[in-house]
């Protein structure tokens, strides 16, 4: 913890010393804080072009800060703070063009920081759109429902990128 505090202090100091490097320093500080936030045991920090999960949740942009390896979790899971999107995973289905229709036995789990908290995604689809070596990309959409209320949650424009090699 002392090391982290020292690093943040150094970043603050460097950023206040000159304007020419301020944008880069602020960007580096944000990336560092994102990495710290993302560190849940067993997770992998997201990074553009590597581990990624994004979506629109009820029209608002959502981006995972970390992900769990599907080889570890048995699911494709993206985390942002206390929220997560958890997609079904079967390694045999990670082939270009494969479509997975969500259902009662093949559902998406959505954890949100709202008054509902847990949503079951039974209506929607996931499609594998690219396979390149160990990396797999896909898109998804899902309607989440709450068993306690009549509310629904719409997840659209979902995208993920995972490595089949783990970390």
Put simply, the count of helices is: 3
Shape, per Cα inertia axes? globular
Largest sheet: 11 strands, antiparallel
Number of strands: 11
Taken as a percent bin, the fraction of beta residues is 35-45%
Layout: helices, strands, pairs:
Blueprint: H1 2-17, H2 22-38, E1 43-45, E2 52-57, E3 60-63, E4 66-68, H3 70-73, E5 75-80, E6 83-88, E7 99-101, E8 108-111, E9 118-132, E10 135-145, E11 152-163
Antiparallel strand pairs: 1-4, 2-3, 2-11, 4-5, 5-6, 6-8, 7-9, 8-9, 9-10, 10-11
What does this structure look like?
This protein has 167 residues and is α+β, with helices and mostly antiparallel strands. The chain contains 3 helices and 11 strands. Helix 1 runs antiparallel to helix 2. The chain is globular and about 45 Å long. The chain starts with a helix and ends with a strand.
Keywords:
alpha+beta; 167 residues; globular; single chain
Quick overview of this protein structure:
By secondary structure, the chain is α+β, with helices and mostly antiparallel strands. The protein is built from three helices and eleven strands.
